[in-house]
From TrEMBL:
SUPFAM superfamilies: Growth factor receptor domain. It comes from Trichoplax adhaerens (Trichoplax reptans). This is EGF-like domain-containing protein. GO terms for molecular function: calcium ion binding. The keyword Transmembrane helix applies. SMART domains: EGF (SM00181), EGF_CA (SM00179). Gene3D superfamilies: Laminin. Disulfide bonds join C1-C11, C23-C32, C62-C71, C100-C109, C136-C145, C174-C183. GO terms for cellular component: apical plasma membrane. It is a single-pass type I membrane protein. Its main location: membrane.
Length: 228
């Protein structure tokens, strides 16, 4: 042992003028000349790269799509929401793909007749990859849902009332003598105490107006009544 034949260990002589080496941790061989490599057994699966940290420890450098000590877990690539709104992200081993709704295509479903949305006030529904139709919100019409529906087109107001179109609604402006949502109710002017009939006349309600008729024994236009 005088020549220190054990490179990384302790030399122990024996009775036959020979010796043996007791190797330090991490070394082996007749002269303790070989360093142990934990990666030599190829402990990392899935083509991961084994990186030696010490003679007894290693780490696995995982390929794309995997993580974990032994690269045993698949990364969910859909967590970052790579697909556009309304499309479905499908995770696969080491990758993902986007399942596009009708009318969209592209790696992230970013292309299609509905992108950008051509429907001003409505939902775009794709027809194939190049055409679409619009499902309009209430009160709108037209191919692109950009035309306000004229609620007065159906003539909802009664008689000579004026229909005023509003968004998703209408308003009836009633002529004198009428009231109600569609101006279909006759005002009884004789109940208002505002009619100009003579005290010697009777007020008669007629459709949309009233008449003054002199009482028996009087004559005139009803506004002025004279005794006979």
């Amino acid at each position: 042992c005088a020549s220190s034949p054990c490179n990384n260990g302790n030399c122990t002589p024996n009775s036959t003028n020979t010796f043996y080496c007791k190797c330090n941790d991490g070394w082996y061989g007749d002269a303790c000349e070989i360093e142990k490599n934990p990666c030599s057994s190829q402990p990392c699966p899935r083509n991961a790269t084994c990186y030696k940290q010490s003679t007894s420890h290693y780490v696995c450098l995982c390929p794309n799509g995997y993580f974990g000590r032994q690269c045993e877990q698949d990364i969910d690539e859909c967590v970052s929401s790579p697909c556009t709104e309304n499309s479905t992200c499908v995770d696969a081993v080491g990758l993902y793909y986007c399942k596009c709704p009708e009318g969209y295509y592209g790696e992230s479903c970013e292309k299609g007749a509905c992108n950008p949305n051509p429907c001003t006030y409505g939902q775009c529904i794709g027809i194939g990859a190049a055409d679409y139709r619009c499902k309009c919100a209430a009160g709108w019409t037209g191919k692109k849902c950009n035309i306000s529906i004229n609620e007065c087109a159906s003539n909802p107001c009664h008689l000579n009332a004026t229909c005023v179109d509003m968004h998703e609604a209408y308003f009836c402006s009633c002529p004198n003598g009428w009231y109600g949502e569609s101006c279909n109710k006759d005002i009884n002017e004789c109940n208002s105490n505002r009619f100009p009939c003579s005290s010697n006349a009777k007020c008669l309600n007629v459709i949309g107006s009233y008449r003054c008729v002199c009482k028996e024994g009087y004559y005139g236009d009803g506004i002025k009544c004279r005794g006979e």
